[in-house]
TrEMBL record:
PANTHER family: NITRATE ABC TRANSPORTER ATP-BINDING PROTEIN, TAURINE IMPORT ATP-BINDING PROTEIN-RELATED. One of its GO terms (biological process) is monoatomic ion transport. This is ABC transporter substrate-binding protein. InterPro entries: AAA+_ATPase, ABC_transporter-like_ATP-bd, ABC_transporter-like_CS, ABC_transporter_ATP-bind, NO3_transporter_ATP-bd-like, NrtA/CpmA_ABC-bd_dom, P-loop_NTPase. It comes from Pseudanabaena cinerea FACHB-1277. Pfam families: ABC_tran, NMT1_2. GO terms for cellular component: plasma membrane. Residues 6-240 form the ABC transporter domain.
Amino acid sequence: MSTTFLEIDHVSRVFKNDKGLPFVAIKDVYFEMKEGEFVSIIGHSGCGKSTVLNILSGLDRASEGGIVLEGREVREPGPDRMLVFQNHSLLPWLTVRQNIGLAVNRVMRQLPKQERNRIIQENIDLVGLSHAADKYPREISGGMKQRVGIARALAIKPKILLLDEPFGALDALTRGRLQEKLMQICDEHKISAVMITHDVDEALLLSDRVVMMTNGPEAKIGQVLTVDLPHPRKRLETVNHPNYYRLRGEVVNFLDRQKQIKLDRLKMKSNAVISMGSIEKTNLTIGYIPLTDCAPFVVAQEKGLFAKYGLDVTLSKETSWNDLAEGIREGRLDAAQMVTGLPLAITLGMGNKIPVPVVTSLTLSRNGNAITLSKKLQETGVHDLASLKTYIDSCQDAYNPALGMVHHASMHNFMLRHWLASGGIQPDQDVDVIVIPPPQMVSNLMANNIIGYCVGEPWNVRAVDSNVGFVVATDLDIWRGHPEKVLGVRKEWAEQYPHTHLALVKALLEAAQFCEPLENRDEIVLMLSQPQYLNLSPVYIRPGFAGPYRVNTMEAKYYKDFCQFGVGNMPSRKEQLWILTQMARWGLVNFPENHAEVIYNLLATDVYHQAAKELNIEVTEEDREAIALADGSTFDANDPIAALSAMPYSQFTEPVHFDSVKGFASKKVATARH
Ligand SMILES: Nc1ncnc2c1ncn2[C@@H]1O[C@H](COP(=O)(O)OP(=O)(O)OP(=O)(O)O)[C@@H](O)[C@H]1O
């Protein structure tokens, strides 16, 4: 049975602007909530929060899509959805009791008078207004009026409470008290509620989930954050919880990014698409993470290869893979260096996001990662996978030991999990696998927040040199020649700017060629070490890149003929299918029954072929052999479902249809409408 209580099913709302032209305020907003959940909607002013709430309440109608409450489409206002506004809207000539009574007597007129009076009194008591029950609105404070508004809404027992900035007009002290009161009522009575707020702390205090909206026009849900803080909540305990500032950071970062996008859009208006000859757009912003393997981007910039192919590129140093992914989703970035699973993750809407189709036209690097464990572990006798298992089995701590990796869709995550599983250690059960931005790995290891991590260079060498960690395995011990970084762009962008896309692939492919010979690498180390890129001494960059490799053998590869089945820089169907199975294996996404179509749409091999042809690079087609991993296991891409079912600890149950607009087999309004 479905646990969906309320479904905002792909809702769009088009208004007319003051010139009479259509204005798409919100587009394709999709969200589901469970009964008893408290959800906040947060976003910058004018993004469309009230539009969503008005459509939910039935005061406004969606131009497309609809609202389904307990399996029925709702189109009109009704007592099952009570709206509480900022300006309490009480009738001045009625007392507190009469204001509440008016609603109760109207909606519950079938109940005996005595019962109705009991309900009225119960709700007056609930919001702590017994002493003011017979006062008129002019005789009570703003906070008290707002409590009357809440009591009036709760008294008629709506299925869901809709709150439009309910405390926005109150002073800080009253606001704080009322938040606590509402939090207590919602906790005790398991109220389902949707609340609009501009206040991050208010959202975190009250909500089970925070829905963050992007800027309009065409505003969407950009991110949904689960607030996994314990209930019942008390303000002090909540803000002192170890996870509070991480959650707060997520919301604040999202809002900051939206602010930046607004500024960028204003800038872009005066800096519209610049085109030259057949190149539709010459001015590009490309996202990357300051790791050694961003080398092709740095080389293309420093050696003038972007310019050679008619591009004027700004390289945007991103702080995390998550920020970079958002940059692509929101259109702030034209293109980006991506961990190999990221194009699929964005395309599938992994992490509860709206799917945004992305294509990859180039594999930029292979290998280059290692698993580092803390020196403290080594001192207790851990030196390989088997002794790590012994250590984990004997762990008496209240919390699972944690290992870091850089993004859920990264090869670091998949390879780390594969390696652990191959040694009988079950990720998520025996150890936690958590996301940490690469530059923060070493400090987290030193602070004992994690017992180790899987990351690229220079962060393994750095831990070894600082004597805080040792390398227990490199990726050569897991999958020699695995794809590591790829180029990703939005599919829509690729269709809009095909010549720009081709020029970009040519510039990067030529840069990758330059990165490959070891004799070029010392020169590249100096480029990378500059403040605008890695901002790190060459001493730390050289060992993981130019050799001699101090950390076992970490052969980072950049140019063709280096992977076991010879596709080189061409995006590979087999590799992406392996990644897709890992995403499903670890419960990150459903496995699409139409996986062949999903992968076909993901790979822009035609662009790669054209670029290779123009650069006189021979293209080797992918064979149909199974991928061989170092632990002796193989992956047969011809039957991914069988392969997935046989993987140890697989969370896969059954394939689900994926639709590039609606996501994974989302229920259609049509089936629930009456
Ligand atoms: N009836 C309408 N006619 C035309 N445009 C409208 C109408 N209602 C809303 N809009 C526009 O739709 C967009 C979203 O408005 P909405 O009030 O939903 O935003 P909001 O996020 O609630 O803003 P705030 O936080 O400032 O209250 C805005 O650009 C607004 O100007």
